[in-house]
């Protein structure tokens, strides 16, 4: 009993293990397909019964029964599992063999660079494998291979698209040789295999590419040969080919019929020839000497003698030839020669010059009148010169009309060779003759020229037309409006300017309206009855005919300057010129001049007002400031003395500014007069330097003075020259840094005395050089200088008043140089100014 229990325990454990592995459940499920869950519960129940309910034998019996059933099921399941394991092992071995074989086939397949594209049946998605770098960059998407236009030229790409569509739709295989956009030669092969459309693309190289190219050339040569053979067989002319030994190697059916042979073989065996012996000898000699032979020869075919154009040429080691029937052309040529001779005899009797040029633009016929008309050499004409040569010779002899562009004129004349209708023209030759020229295109492509001398008939018309044309062109080109009215008061002549000026209709004016009608049309712009009565009387009067000037101010604001002028034939000419712009400009200038005069007067008034209203109080303040600073008025506290010093400096600066403004205003108004006299250069520089001594000491700036020994003196206003130099030195000191040097120098040239003031300040930017002399143009440029900006303006004004010039040279960061030229001869300056 215990052994049975142990066996059952082992069986249960095995069953439990099988259950863990999922096999027992599967077996029970196979045995009890209707209740797999119940089988699992049964196993759990058996385990519980064996472990905890050993005393209940009844339950044990049931369990044993079930256990037996389970053991049988487990045995069957184990057998199935063993069999499945063996099959699985065999299957895995087979799969390994197949995988190894697939890897070997894949290695063999991609041993060379190529691309495989496959489309499963009924599926538009392509599978791409292989080395796509042979057509696209390595980082490209494989699907871009299907866009053939990205790596093939347009025509091969379209050919590839059509071939792939035919392969997928109908299973049509193909083999193409393609050249990529980068010059690589590829081979594309398409096949339908196992329900799939497969395209293989690989690069042709070496022998295989040469073989493919050879096959292509062979196919092209074969197609060309077949085409030429078909053409030769269909041609109605005898065509033949001979070998190096002169034996017949090819002949078309026309050759066989011409030699009355039964076949090509018969002609070869019997050595039948198309030409007679003399002509054959001439052809062989021509082929030997010139590699080709061309001649028109008689040939007897079918008992009939006909004319043929025979052409032969050496090809390789042999020769080929063709004979084209030219009998009709020869007959027509003879008839044409006879007809031409008849026409020549007829045309030689005409007084008109006739010249016929053929399709190659060479002279084919001329009559004697043509030769006499142009006085050309008969030998030159008989040499059949071309049209251009004839025209060039006539131009060299100055017998053609003078042309500004002869080449363009000749090209236009030669358009007759492409025309479909005749054209007529008149040539006016340098010798005074006039020729009527008719160019008629011929059906065969040439041109016939017909020349007639129409000098006498055109002479009077030319003179009259010339006068009318000159008159009309002159009037039409005038900016003035011109109208001529006859003695009957009707308009006879007018120009476009007259029509535009009065807004009339040109068609209505061509109907020769009366002056009263024209007056009615013009009333919308000008309706002064007195002026129009004056115009009517001048046009229709017979006596007292004289020029009458007019000036019309019209309603549209325009102003016309008119003239009524009688003509010798009783007519009257009216001329009108639009002077609106001139009047407006004159009016604007007059108004501007009046405004400027008023401004000048205001400036003078301002100068007088400032002179009285501003300078007088300043003088009073300055006087009282000096009085307060005098010890005789009593002692001042230090603070009062400091404030008084500020007042004195401020009033002095204000007085200097006021004086500068007055001086500039006086100069600008033209009221400044120079007090000329001898100016000692050294003394002038000394006086100017005294005024800046306190500023030099305050800013610790050294003044460097350089005066040339021969500078001497010159004629000028000493006071204004000192003022110029003082302003320049003050400006230089104001812009110079502390502990620096300001220089002033003077030298004499041939016609002037040159003062130069230099500083080492920040300099003047290039865009500011033209503005430093403007009024109130003051810029510190990072220096201590502050001012109203009038010093340099005064400098330029005073120097120019002396007839001199001022210029500034400056480099930013390196200082400024101001140069003043004072002319030494003031008399010459005054004469030049006058």
Describe this structure in words.
- This protein has 834 residues and is of the alpha+beta class.
- α1 (2-21) packs antiparallel against α3 (36-52), α1 packs parallel to α4 and α22 packs across α26 (791-801).
- The protein is flat.
- The N and C termini lie far apart (160 Å).
- Mean pLDDT is 77; it is low at 1-43, 45-55 and 785-789.
Averaged pLDDT, please?
77
Shape: flat
Strand content: 15-25%
Spatially, the strands of the biggest sheet line up as 2-1-5-4-3
Distance between the termini: 160 Å
Give the structural class: alpha+beta
Rg from C-alpha positions?
A: 61 Å
Number-wise, the strands total 27
EC number: 2.7.13.3
GO molecular function, one term: histidine phosphotransfer kinase activity
Organism: Bradyrhizobium nitroreducens
Catalytic activity: ATP + protein L-histidine = ADP + protein N-phospho-L-histidine
Brief characterization of the structure:
Its EC number is 2.7.13.3. With 834 residues, this protein is α+β, with helices and mostly antiparallel strands.
Features:
5-stranded antiparallel beta sheet, Beta-Lactamase, about 50% helix, about 850 residues, alpha+beta, 6 domains
Question: How do the helices and strands line up, and which of them pair or pack?
Answer:
Layout: H1 2-21, H2 23-31, H3 36-52, H4 57-109, E1 114-120, E2 127-130, H5 154-170, E3 174-179, E4 185-193, E5 196-203, H6 206-234, E6 239-242, E7 248-251, H7 253-258, H8 264-270, H9 277-290, E8 292-301, E9 304-315, E10 318-325, H10 327-347, E11 353-357, E12 363-366, H11 368-374, H12 378-382, H13 387-396, H14 406-413, E13 423-428, E14 434-441, E15 447-453, H15 455-477, E16 481-485, E17 491-494, H16 496-502, H17 506-510, H18 515-522, H19 529-540, E18 548-553, E19 559-566, E20 572-578, H20 580-613, H21 615-629, H22 638-668, E21 677-680, H23 681-690, H24 693-698, E22 702-707, E23 713-716, H25 718-735, E24 741-748, E25 752-759, H26 791-801, E26 805-811, E27 815-823, H27 826-833
Parallel strand pairs: 22-24
Antiparallel strand pairs: 1-2, 1-5, 3-4, 4-5, 6-7, 6-10, 8-9, 9-10, 11-12, 11-15, 13-14, 14-15, 16-17, 16-20, 18-19, 19-20, 21-23, 24-25, 25-27, 26-27
Helix pairs in contact: 1-2, 1-3, 1-4, 2-3, 2-4, 3-4, 20-22, 21-22, 22-26, 23-25, 25-26
